[in-house]
Protein: CBCO1 protein
Amino acid sequence: KMEEFLNLTQLKTSLKEAILLDYYTAGFWWAKEMNFSLIQLSGFMDLLNFALENLSSKYMTLGDNLKELERTMAGIGETDSEERGDQNLFSIEQAKAIIDYLVTSLFKHYKAYEYLFHGRREEPVVSNE
Structure:
């Protein structure tokens, strides 16, 4: 289901798509284990996507991404949850757990994710040899 939701069409041949599927699936199951409500689960998945988009599309450095996450978690930045009026979507304990999760799942491996999105790849050469 996650593969369909993320519109991953080359999962069997794309390392990038396989890593993205793993990233989102692991996050989803972690949030389920935290017993997040449906709204909290959606907000958490938005945070995962937010942090990854900052890296992949906005080319943010680790420090900038952490600052942006801090602003978002504090409710200072313009976020969807702020517009809906549910700034207190997570308790303090849940917010701390989310930050810990993001640190271990994404930020500790930031260089690898940067390479995944921005590293130069050589085209494979296929020959009879």
About this structure: The longest helix spans residues 15-33. The two ends are 39 Å apart (CA to CA). Residues 76-85 have pLDDT under 50 and may be disordered.
